[in-house]
C-alpha cells in the first residue's frame, strides 16, 4: 500500500550517507533521466476482476500485486508477481477456502519473497512464497475464531515480517499482531496490543497499520477510543510503552476531539517514525477533519503539522492521509481537500522531519476525489499519483515526479484508448532501491475491467570494461569481461568488436564467437533494458597474438668441462605476413628468455647471450625458452657433448741415459 514502506539499508542514526544525500539535494543534484512509460494492461480484461489490493516492490526490483477475482460465485484472492521486469499470470492464493476472500494485502522481499494476507469468513490467512524459485507454502490460519478484519503486513530488509489485524475483544475489538522470520510460519503474539484492556481498538477507521524497520523492530499504529495509539514490537515482545498521538494534538489553537485512519512511515531506524492520521476538530460546533502528521521520536510524539493548505477559516477540511518514506526518512505525506479535491504534499527530510507543504495538482482541479497516493523509491526519486476527473466525468491517472529538488511537470500515466480509469476500485504505487517506480490502477476497458501498470523505469547504470591482468591475449577468441550495469527489471548486453555487433548476452563476460586477426581490436558493450533504454561502456582494446616468437641459439667455445662456453640468442616476435593491402599487425614482442643448461644448475634469465662452465664431461641438452608478452612460447633444444681431453705423454730420457 502507498502508506507502507519497507526500509532499505540499516543504520543506527543519520549517517554520512544521509548527509551526502541531503547535500546533493541542497546543491541541486541533476535528476536521473528515467523513462516514464504509460500504463499497459498487465491483467485482464476480465469481467470477474473486482478490485486491486496493493502493489509492492522489494529493494531488488522483484515485486507483486494482489487483487480480487470472482470465481465460482465467490471472490478469491489472487497475486501476480514481478520477476525480471515482467508480470506473471494470476496465481490464486486462497486455495479451496469456502466463502469469499477480501482485504488482500501483499508485501515483498529480495529474491522474490512474497507474503500475502487476507480475510476469509471472518478469519485471517497468510501464504508465503520464500523465493522466486521456490513454491508457495501452505495456507496458514493466523486467526480462526471469526470476526477478524483489516489485515496489514510489512516485511523488512532483514527478512523479519509483521502482520496486524483487528479481531473480536472484550471491548468490541482488539489489535493483534503476528511475527515471522526467514519465511517461517507466523507466530501470533498471545496478548492484544490494545493500550487499555477492555477498550474498542482497531475498529472501523481505526484499523491498524504496521511498519517494519531495518533493525527488526515494528511500529504499529491504530485507533482506540477516539485516539491514535502507537506501540513498538520486537519479534514477539511488545513494548510496555504506548504513545498517544492525541496528546498535544492542537492545530490553529484547537485541540482535536478525535483521530483515526493512521498510516505508518517507518525508516531504517525505528527511533524516528512518521505517523499520518485524520484528526477531527470542533470548529464552532461543526466537526472538521484535517490530515495531521506527527513524528514518533522514541516513545513520544513531536508537535503536529497539518498536511494541507486549508485552514479552518477557509471552510474546508482535508482527508485521506497517506505517507511514504525511505530508509533515512525522506519522503512524502499527502492530504486532500474534502471540498476542492486538491492534493497537498508535505515533504519529509531525514529522520522523517516535517518539511514544506505544496499543492500537487498543477494543471487543473479534479471534479471528484483523486485517491492520491505517494511513493518513495530513493530520497531523490519520489512520485505522487492520483486520478483526475473532468467536469464531464472522464477519468485518467496522473503523476508528478519529485527529483530531490522539485516536483516535475504533471504527466498523464494512463492511456485514454484503453478506457477510463477506476481508482475507486484500486490505485497504488511502489518503488525499489534502483529508483524504479510502478503505479498500478484499475481501468475499465471495452472488454472488461483490467489492471494497468505505468512505470518510471530507471535506465541501466554505468559500467565499464573490466581491467585485465594481461595486455595481450594468446587466443584468437579472447574472453571479454565487464562490470555489472545496475538494472532491476531485465537487461541484455550487446557486444561489439571493431564496430560490429557480435553477440548478445545476459552475462558479464563473453568469449568472442569468431576468430580475430592478429593485432589490436576495439570492443564496446551496450546495456539495454526491456524498455530499450541503453548505456555504453567506454571503448576497450583487446590485443591478439597467437604466433610464437622465433629464436635461434648458437654455442661457441671448446666442448670440454671446466672451460667457459658462450651461448648466443637471437629472438624476435615477427608479424605474420599480411594480406595484400592490409597493414602489418602489431605483435606483443619478446618478453623474456630463460636458459636451462641441463646440468641441474639454476635456470637463469637470458638476454642476448650468456657464458657457462660445465664441471664434468658428458652429454647435455641446453633448453632455451622464449616467451612473448602474450604468453606464446618457443623452445629451442641444443644437444651438447663435452669430452675431457686425453692427458699428454711425458717425453722419454733416450738411450744414452739408459746406459
From TrEMBL:
Keyword rRNA processing set for record: no
Domain of life of the native organism: Bacteria
Residue ranges of coiled coil: none
Ranges where the PKD domain occurs: 596-634
Ranges for region Disordered: 568-587
Signal peptide from the UniProt entry: 1-34
Keyword vocabulary terms for this entry: Signal
Protein name listed in UniProt: PKD domain-containing protein
Organism expressing this protein natively: Conexibacter stalactiti
Amino acid at each position: 500500500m502507498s502508506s507502507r514502506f519497507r526500509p532499505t539499508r540499516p543504520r543506527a542514526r543519520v549517517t554520512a550517507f544521509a548527509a551526502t544525500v541531503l547535500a546533493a539535494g541542497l546543491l541541486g543534484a541533476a535528476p536521473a533521466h528515467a523513462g516514464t512509460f504509460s500504463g499497459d494492461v498487465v491483467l485482464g480484461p476480465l469481467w470477474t476482476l473486482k478490485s486491486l489490493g496493493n502493489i509492492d516492490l522489494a529493494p531488488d526490483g522483484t515485486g507483486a500485486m494482489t487483487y480480487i477475482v470472482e470465481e465460482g460465485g465467490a471472490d478469491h484472492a489472487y497475486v501476480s508477481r514481478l520477476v525480471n521486469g515482467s508480470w506473471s499470470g494470476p496465481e490464486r492464493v486462497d486455495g479451496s477456502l469456502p466463502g469469499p476472500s477480501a482485504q488482500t494485502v501483499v508485501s515483498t522481499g529480495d529474491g522474490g519473497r512474497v507474503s500475502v494476507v487476507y480475510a476469509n469468513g471472518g478469519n485471517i490467512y497468510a501464504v508465503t512464497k520464500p523465493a522466486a524459485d521456490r513454491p508457495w507454502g501452505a495456507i496458514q490460519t493466523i486467526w480462526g475464531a471469526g470476526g477478524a478484519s483489516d489485515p496489514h503486513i510489512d516485511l523488512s530488509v532483514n527478512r523479519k515480517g509483521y502482520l496486524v489485524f483487528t479481531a473480536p475483544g472484550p471491548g468490541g475489538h482488539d489489535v493483534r499482531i503476528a511475527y515471522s522470520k526467514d519465511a517461517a510460519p507466523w507466530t501470533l503474539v498471545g496478548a492484544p496490543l490494545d493500550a487499555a484492556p477492555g477498550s474498542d481498538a482497531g475498529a472501523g477507521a481505526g484499523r491498524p497499520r504496521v511498519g517494519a524497520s531495518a533493525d527488526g523492530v515494528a511500529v504499529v499504529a491504530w485507533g482506540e477510543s477516539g485516539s491514535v495509539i502507537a506501540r513498538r514490537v520486537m519479534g514477539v515482545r511488545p513494548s510496555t510503552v504506548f504513545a498517544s498521538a492525541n496528546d498535544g494534538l492542537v492545530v490553529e489553537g484547537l485541540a482535536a476531539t478525535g483521530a483515526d485512519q493512521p498510516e505508518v512511515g517507518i525508516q531504517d531506524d525505528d527511533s524516528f517514525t512518521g505517523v499520518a492520521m485524520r484528526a477531527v476538530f470542533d470548529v464552532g460546533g461543526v466537526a472538521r477533519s484535517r490530515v495531521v502528521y506527527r513524528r514518533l521520536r522514541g516513545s513520544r510524539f513531536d508537535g503536529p503539522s497539518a498536511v494541507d493548505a486549508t485552514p479552518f477559516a477557509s471552510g474546508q477540511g482535508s482527508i485521506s492521509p497517506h505517507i511514504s518514506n525511505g530508509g533515512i526518512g525522506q519522503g512524502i505525506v499527502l492530504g486532500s481537500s474534502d471540498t476542492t479535491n486538491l492534493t497537498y504534499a508535505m515533504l519529509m527530510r531525514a529522520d522523517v522531519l516535517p518539511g514544506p507543504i505544496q499543492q500537487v495538482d498543477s494543471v487543473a482541479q479534479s471534479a471528484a476525489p483523486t485517491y492520491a497516493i505517494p511513493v518513495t523509491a530513493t530520497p531523490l526519486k519520489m512520485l505522487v499519483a492520483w486520478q483526475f476527473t473532468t467536469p464531464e466525468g472522464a477519468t485518467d491517472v496522473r503523476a508528478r515526479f519529485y527529483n530531490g529538488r522539485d516536483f516535475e511537470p504533471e504527466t498523464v500515466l494512463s492511456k485514454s484508448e484503453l478506457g477510463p480509469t477506476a481508482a475507486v476500485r484500486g490505485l497504488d504505487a511502489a518503488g525499489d532501491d534502483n529508483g524504479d517506480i510502478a503505479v498500478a490502477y484499475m481501468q475499465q476497458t471495452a472488454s472488461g475491467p483490467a489492471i494497468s501498470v505505468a512505470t518510471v523505469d530507471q535506465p541501466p547504470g554505468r559500467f565499464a570494461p573490466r581491467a585485465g591482468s594481461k595486455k595481450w591475449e594468446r587466443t584468437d577468441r579472447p574472453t571479454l569481461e565487464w562490470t555489472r550495469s545496475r538494472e532491476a527489471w531485465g537487461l541484455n548486453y550487446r557486444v561489439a568488436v571493431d564496430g560490429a555487433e557480435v553477440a548478445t548476452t545476459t552475462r558479464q563476460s563473453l568469449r568472442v564467437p569468431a576468430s580475430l586477426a592478429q593485432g589490436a581490436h576495439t570492443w564496446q558493450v551496450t546495456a539495454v533494458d526491456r524498455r530499450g533504454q541503453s548505456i555504453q561502456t567506454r571503448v576497450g582494446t583487446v590485443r591478439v597474438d597467437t604466433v610464437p616468437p622465433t629464436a635461434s641459439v648458437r654455442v661457441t667455445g671448446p666442448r670440454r668441462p671446466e672451460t667457459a662456453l658462450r651461448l648466443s640468442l637471437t629472438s624476435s616476435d615477427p608479424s605474420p605476413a599480411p594480406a595484400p593491402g592490409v597493414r602489418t599487425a602489431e605483435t606483443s614482442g619478446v618478453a623474456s628468455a630463460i636458459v636451462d643448461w641441463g646440468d641441474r644448475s639454476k635456470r637463469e634469465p637470458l638476454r642476448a647471450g650468456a657464458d657457462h662452465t660445465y664441471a664434468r664431461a658428458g652429454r647435455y641438452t641446453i633448453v632455451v625458452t622464449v616467451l612473448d608478452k602474450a604468453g606464446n612460447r618457443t623452445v629451442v633444444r641444443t644437444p651438447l657433448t663435452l669430452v675431457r681431453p686425453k692427458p699428454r705423454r711425458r717425453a722419454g730420457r733416450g738411450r744414452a741415459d739408459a746406459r
